[in-house]
Amino acid sequence: MKKLYSIRRVPALLKKKKLIVFDMDGTLTPSKAPMDPAMSRLLVRLLAVKKVAVIGGGKYGLFKKQLLAPFKKCPAALLKNMFLFPTTSTTFYRYDGGWKNVYTLTLSVRERAKIIKAFRDVLKETKYVLPEKTYGKTIEDRGTQVSFSPLGQDIVAYCGEKEGVRRKEEWKKKYEPMRVKVADILAKRLTEFEVHRGGLTTIDVTRKGIDKAYGIRAIERQLKVPVRDMVFVGDALYSGGNDSAARRTGVDCIAVRNPEETKEIIKKILEH
Predict the structure, then answer these.
(1) Domains of the chain by start residue, with CATH
(2) Quick one: which of 11, 85, 198, 257 is 20 to 30 A from 29 by CA?
(3) Helix (H) or strand (E) holding 202
(4) CA-based angle 46:102:247, to the nearest 5?
(5) Are 205 and 191 in contact (CB under 8 A)?
(6) In 135-225, alpha helices (H)
């Protein structure tokens, strides 16, 4: 396992990296919120000199809202250097005159039904009561994974970025022990699947072996870029965090706390 670097110590070796891999929520964007204009401008500059891949737990539709919609002014020639891996890399999109789906690893109807039932059973057993007001589905079938969001999948869309993220952060402060408990019980019951805590409030369930380590290997296969030529940037690289699995691949990793620190990382890469 390679060393984990922080923003305070970005090694000079990064200038040799061919591909920069970013987590989405909490790294490039606030939780389920659009990328801000400053980040968009920095990514355009980065795409001119490096290849960029983005892995996130959200589905492709969310990637379009968070990442691609604010990115409209990026030249098409540079978009060919960007590669998208939604729903924890169970899908892959690349640009070729438009965003084209390369693969999708869909769970069967029976598998998704089993996961949804397990979510409902565990939430009932742990006596977790949903808030009186939720925004969108709390248990969402994303085809390639099933995700639980206690405030609803669309809280940021309904309440706005600032208020939506604030409510999610409040929920996390109050209920994170409950989220850990629910995820742990699910992992014991759904042994043929992977259970991840993603973002501020979400629990994702994917096919066995699907995590950020799988994503790094998928990027290596699809883009023909060796792990030694990549660096991964994420906000949850700590033990138990949903980005930490990437470290098993031996990829160099840089830990950030929020998108503002990610901007500083990109600036440091561009300086070289």
Answers:
(1) 4-105+210-271 (3.40.50.1000), 109-207 (3.30.1240.20)
(2) 11
(3) strand 202-207
(4) 55
(5) no
(6) 155-159, 161-189, 212-223
